[in-house]
Amino acid sequence: MTITYGATRNAAEALRGMCGGAVHLPGDPGYDASRMPWNVWVSRLNPAAVAYPRTAAEVSQLVIAARAAGLQVTTQATGHNASPLGDLSEVLLIKMSAMTSVEIDPVKGIARVGAGTLWLDVVEAAQACGVTVLHGSSPDVGVLGYSLGGGMGWYARELGLQTNALTAATIVTADGSIVHASATENADLFWAIRGGGGNYGVLTEIEFRTFDFSDAYAGMLVWPWEQAEEVLPVWAAWAVDAPRSVTTSFRILQVPPMPEIPEPFRGRNLVVIDGAVLAGDAQADAILTPLRALHPEMDTFARVPTATLVRLHMDPEGPTPAVSATAILDDLPSAGIDALLAATGPASDSKLAVMELRQLGGALAVPAERAGAVSHIPGQFLAFALSIAATPELGELGEQQTYQAIEALAPWTSGRDYLNFAEASMDTSRGYDEDAWLRLRQVKTDWDPFALFIGNHAIPPLGDD
Ligand SMILES: Cc1cc2nc3c(=O)[nH]c(=O)nc-3n(C[C@H](O)[C@H](O)[C@H](O)COP(=O)(O)OP(=O)(O)OC[C@H]3O[C@@H](n4cnc5c(N)ncnc54)[C@H](O)[C@@H]3O)c2cc1C
Hints:
Elements (H helix, E strand, L loop, with lengths): L22 E2 L6 H5 L13 E3 L4 H14 L2 E5 L14 E5 L6 E4 L4 E5 L4 H10 L14 H7 L6 H4 L6 E7 L5 E5 L4 H10 L5 E8 L5 E10 L3 H14 L4 E9 L14 E9 L3 H12 L5 E2 L2 E4 L16 E8 L4 H11 L9 E6 L21 E8 L3 H16 L26 H14 L18
Parallel strand pairs: 2-4, 3-4
Antiparallel strand pairs: 1-2, 5-6, 6-9, 7-8, 7-9, 10-12, 10-13, 10-14, 11-12, 11-16, 15-17, 16-17
The structure holds flavin-adenine dinucleotide.
């Protein structure tokens, strides 16, 4: 038996009045604001309805009602990675922003977080308890989307991906049941969500490990753009051999001249290496010596409370129009460095706000114990090019230039993608190894055979190609 979704024109009317009235249909006064994601470049989202549940029970009622009305379901915390979503005219968009909560149990080493929670709130709560969590570079990314897609932050080469720090989840599945998933309960579902994202249900809460430290040796080194040719080869060679206690990123930044940006960065083109070392000060100093030998104009590396790392990367907060492209690199020999600098360095016509390489390796290179579907990220570097799409013209130019920058690295790409950074509609199987992909499709068939749920990177049931 198959189900074909194809809601009648007024199917979404059946949802009206649910969630205490927080359901918006096309034409309603709240519809346009509610369908707008964090990445406001993605202004085309056209859901059949947008709903803001407050409890797992309300999520369950929505799922049952959407299914009865012939609508599919997709979920968002913030819309940081909304770009891959296609036509949503027969899809209910469930936004989790009314379900925020943070509980930290430092004795058990566990955090329990509601589905709409942003990283900043968890990081601050963790710091107050003397523990640290595996957040990423942005304070306002949603904990759920980040955690379900992988989750690579400043401790990743030592402690791995956040998705593999998950210990349990509460999920509303395709028949509206509220189920628990962990290593011992619905273990196949628990495996699949850890990398398979929103394809298996609506998660209402997750639990994950916290780590028993509250400071790190962290900061940034800054050079003028003109020194990119000098700094990149040294960093690239250093990054491959560096101990797993250090995780860094290399960026070429073209910082806009906006008044809210601090003066040393505002309106300048720069090379920035930032990151964290989980080692004592003397050892951390020794690890960073080859980079400091390049005489950065600014060096902020020092021992700091871990909560400060959530803003170390200076990621934009609040709604932002952005276009991007990404690839995983197996290696970056000197020809690759030349290609990257020709596309985005000081002699190029690049207008990219960010050309970034994140350092892989260490714990990221090997499958984690009791891992989910994304057990590790093979490769030496994760490349990411981003442009601010402040106008339609800049958006078009950004789409061209981000694509060209990543295309220039094609000879060194691995053929795999890191889906959290992938903001285009693409072949989702590129996010997984072959066995994991088949198993993800099997678990999809077992739990959601008629594809009620669609993640931003969709996983089809078996036989649905
Ligand atoms: C500025 C910026 C900085 C970033 N930094 C990092 C970083 O350092 N490391 C890193 O790994 N990634 C990073 N990312 C990528 C980020 O992890 C992804 O964009 C992630 O998908 C965002 O999650 P979200 O919940 O905020 O976004 P959303 O767009 O709301 O969600 C993304 C997807 O997650 C799924 N999802 C979300 N909530 C639920 C739920 N409750 N139930 C079921 N499925 C759900 C859905 O499939 C949804 O389409 C960054 C992105 C940006 C824009």
